[in-house]
Amino acid sequence: MFLESEIKKAKELVINAGKISAFTGAGISVDSGIPDFRSEGGLWKRFDPLEHATRESFMRDPTKFWTMGKELAETIVKAKPNDAHLALARLEEQGKLTGVITLNIDNLQQSAGSKRVIELHGNYLCAHCIECNEEYFGRAVHESVAKGEIPPKCEKCGGILKSDAILFGEPLPHEPMANAIELCRDTDLMIVIGTSLTVYPAAFLPQLAKNAGAKIIVINLEGTNKDDVADIVLRGRATDIVPMITDF
Ligand code: ZN
Q: What is the pLDDT at residue 2?
């Protein structure tokens, strides 16, 4: 249970902040029907990431990635943004929120209407041909995977398609990381939602914002590695708490 007074304090921080940013992880999308990959019953409990989701394993045998990808797509393609995603999008529309940094690959924050979303782990709905670099975005690739076209091929050259979600062993993309750092240095309040902040270098970002003078609110079901950095820690579901502290 969370304290009503903490909610009130968090809401005051939101009201008083000029520039707000958010940093989101798997926990914000759980209520949209996308289980945390690392959780019990999550993707990585059923598919060994070393075998299905490293750069080496993809280059060796893309069939393995896309076999896992078929299941992932079934979840992601039909997921809809929830009240937490929508609350952040509203906050941006009001001119309070200047950007969302996300570890998620599900495109839900954009579907909610957010304009500035910095994706540190890429976007699963986006794919590129590994031969000619043709870009594919949306459901079409996943629909053909669902029909059994594994691995999916490029319509132009027949090359194999690779999802833009980053694989284990791949570096975080340079530009989003640079944009995330810039956002952290220019924010009055960072709301960290649904991540235990265990994966570096991303886990370092709230600390960076704090060092630059920002207040930090952490919203998560469980304890995180950065609770000590937070000014306010709120235990609970993102879909309950985010609308509560941003609705005014
Ligand atoms: Zn191609």
A: 53
State in Å: Cα 106 to ligand 1 middle.
Answer: 24
Catalytically active residues, by annotation: 121
Cα–Cα distance for residue pair 94/90, rounded to 1 Å: 6
Task: Name the phi and psi angles at 234, rounded to 5.
Answer: -120, 115
The domains found in the chain, sorted by start residue, are 1-33+81-122+171-248 (3.40.50.1220), 35-78+125-164 (3.30.1600.10)
Q: Tell me how far the alpha carbon of residue 131 lies from the centroid of ligand 1, in angstroms.
A: 5
**Tokens describing residue 112:** 């909610």
Residue 119 token pair: 């994706």
Asked whether the CA dihedral 64, 65, 68, 69 is positive or negative, the reply is: negative
Q: Residue 187 contacts by C-beta under 8 Å, 6 or more apart in sequence? A: 19, 20, 21, 98, 209, 212, 214
**How many angstroms separate the CA atoms of 150 and 154, rounded?**
12
Mean pLDDT of 226-241: 92
Please tell me the distance between residue 125's alpha carbon and the centre of ligand 1 in angstroms.
17
pLDDT-based confidence at residue 14 (cuts at 50, 70, 90):
very high
